[in-house]
Amino acid sequence: MTTYDFSPLFRSTVGFDRFARLVDAALQSEPATTSYPPYNIETTGEDSYRITMAVAGFSESELAIEAKENTLTITGRKDDDGQDAHYLHRGIATRHFQRRFQLADHVKVAGANLNNGLLSVDLVREVPEEMKPRQITIKKGAPANLVSKAKTLLEGASKKAA
Predict the structure, then answer these.
(1) Alpha-carbon span 42 to 48, nearest angstrom
(2) What pairs with residue 122 in β-bridges?
(3) Could you report the per-residue pLDDT of 91-113, keeping only the tens digit for each?
(4) Which of 13, 26, 44, 107 would be 103's cystine partner, CB 3.0–4.6 Å?
């Protein structure tokens, strides 16, 4: 595996520490063998997304969804039924799991639904008003306060010269 050293980039930038954490997390991601449980990520609109995870055999009480800062964590803890079943074949995986998803800024969890063994988590990007693009009106002429400041400075400079 190739490693990248981003330290020269971060020595000359300020406020990109979250980017550094994302790069580190991507480079140290889970191996491909830990693909349990399988999941899909889809866009359901311009600013909405859905994560659908196959959690067959888990009930609502055995699943937990936590959104903290920009990380969404989905955890499944299978209750031990105390049954001493003797399986001839056990193909339904019901082991504990924990999946983490890095969310972009302003992406919030809108809700979750468990139906037919599929857990769906709806996400919405809510951009604050002050960050949305806005139109600026253009007025004719120089701003009044700028003209008066310039006149005051010119008058003060001419008095000092005299």
Answers:
(1) 9
(2) 50, 111
(3) 877 789 999 998 988 899 999 99
(4) 107
